[in-house]
Batch of 2 targets.
Target 1
Amino acid sequence: MSIKVKVGQRIRELRNELGISQEALANKAEIDRTYVTDVENGRRNISIENLEKLIDALQVQLKDFFDAPNFIK
Amino acid sequence: MSIKVKVGQRIRELRNELGISQEALANKAEIDRTYVTDVENGRRNISIENLEKLIDALQVQLKDFFDAPNFIK
DNA sequence: TTGTAGACTCTTGTCGACC
DNA sequence: AGGTCGACAAGAGTCTACA
């Protein structure tokens, strides 16, 4: 499975834990809502700057974002 | 300090620990050497796919790459 | 609320060359 | 070995609109 898909799944997982909509997350992170949809569905190769914004908005540390079974090799 | 700069510093740190050149790292990760230079110097907003390639080539886990003082908030 | 599509701008990422 | 430049194709990221 590609890293894009794994990142998308992890974002969706954390967003659901927070109980907020894609639009609310996009607003918090100050990025486009339709772009969040694409990222969650593994269709975009997100840059580190936008990934950091999303992870901040999800209120986790970068290292904890990647501390999930999917990311371990 | 921007995430681009932090990522660049961390890549350089880990590359130096491995004792390999930018060119050797670029070859291992299958990305362009001049691009590695720019990334290490914090001038490029790298995508998750290329960042994963570099981190693989540096032989660390994603979560360990981001488990450094610079990245903790 | 989420997903998709189209059109758009600007940057990523590659490559060759030179220092 | 590392840094920079210039040119380029490809893709990131935005926005409007509609289902």
Target 2
Amino acid sequence: MSRQEDLDTALAGTAPQVAPRLLGSVLHHDHVAVRITEVEAYAGPDDPASHAWRGETARNRTMFGPRGHLYVYSMHGHHCCNVVCADPGTPTGLLIRAGEVVAGVDLARERRAAHRRTAIPEHQLARGPGNLTRCLGITRSDDGTDLRNHCGPWLELRPPLPLAEVRSGPRVGVPRAVDVAWRFWIAGDPSVSSFRPARSSR
DNA sequence: CTTTCGATAGTCT
DNA sequence: GACTATCGAAAGG
């Protein structure tokens, strides 16, 4: 079975089903690799926290397409990347929130240093979705990339982690649908970001 | 460790 | 003009 089929099969379920499956897998881009330690699930039109909730726009178009594509958006001057899963028409995304840099540490540190004056501990290089994309050099121009058909290993699937190593809780910074525990992380991993409640509007 | 607050820029109303 | 699926610095425990 080709890797392409493996990935396509692995991403076939609903967002909360697939999300923990990505923990421990490795995301490669531009000479840096990150082992995923934290993921959030954003489900289709029924999830009021999802960008897709209010329908298709120019920004979220990729989420409405086939699974295995990368959905990249920008906000607050940072980029966040999602892996699209499920079937076309049910726009679901998996936000990659944090990871451990396992290759290209010097380059990752260089990219981070451009936006920070103080020293960065190694386990914090890819802690937080904006920091992770900065380490990897992912920008809005990577939106729509098909991870299944890329010649290099974009997303290197690893065997699923034992359930005992996985924790879950509410999503970070999300003001709606607070009751669902759709953030998943590897228990005890230092690269996992700390929980932040949504800031009250106004 | 925690909380709070301002900066930030792209998207949508 | 108002909103964020954010970040880092600063201040407090």
